[in-house]
Description:
This protein is of the alpha+beta class. The protein has eight helices and 14 strands. It is globular.
Amino acid sequence: xxxxxxxxxxxxxxxxxxxxxxxxxxxxxxxxxxxxxxxxxxxxxxxxxxxxxxxxxxxxxxxxxxxxxxxxxxxxxxxxxxxxxxxxxxxxxxxxxxxxxxxxxxxxxxxxxxxxxxxxxxxxxxxxxxxxxxxxxxxxxxxxxxxxxxxxxxxxxxxxxxxxxxxxxxxxxxxxxxxxxxxxxxxxxxxxxxxxxxxxxxxxxxxxxxxxxxxxxxxxxxxxxxxxxxxxxxxxxxxxxxxxxxxxxxxxxxxxxxxxxxxxxxxxxxxxxxxxxxxxxxxxxxxxxxxxxxxxxxxxxxxxxxxxxxxxxxxxxxxxxxx
Length: 323
Ligand code: DP6
């Protein structure tokens, strides 16, 4: 009863920001993301009759009390589905170029869902696996698949899952992650989105924004139009971040360096280089562009941020099982 799996991080081009159901992690809106090849988590799970509780390690270190509870709760879902009462050794390793706190919950829960369900011999389909990963972290539901992926919000546990839009992505779409600040974020996405849903007067408008953006983004992907993809993603991200500013209490994930990076992208654009930005629940800026423009963009950004803080990523694969 052992299995090991690898999952890659994804970055949302149309953001998920708000839960209708906290327990089942059902979102208010659909969302759409790009799975990246550079950032991933490898997790192994071994069920063991000798154990009286689950034992977790991340990067060979024991996990915090808070994470221990979150992970054990997730393992209970596996035990319930399999109808057994075995505990497991769970070892997880985050592979990032340098120690960057980049969207690791998406790859972490996708890898755990895959390894734990395989070790428990649950034989899940990709859709069922996506639903299971969702219960750990919303964005993990999309990391089951490679390339461009859509999460259908659904209306219950059965109907809320991701599916691939384009697993190959052969039209030069690339992303640079600017590692601005890699420490743990001050406001977790979980509590940040809860606050926004409860207090931002703009939340109803956000739901309309996402409805329109999903349609426009899928059309842009069909046309393989990177400029349009970038434009829609940037606008969508700014509208998500406007929600945090309009919450009570108001908060923001931007810091001064994030604003500098956004400014530089605007400058590059006015000089004819097509590039766009998106940000998640933290200050790190991700740049969207066609790979033919990579060198110019890297040259401009490295003057400000240093070459070692720029990570180029291409579209990455879905879940992989390891021997
Ligand atoms: C800004 O998936 O981390 O990255 O479901 O509470 O675990 P939980 O939240 P999480 O939120 C991701 C928020 C985001 C946008 C996105 O990935 O769609």
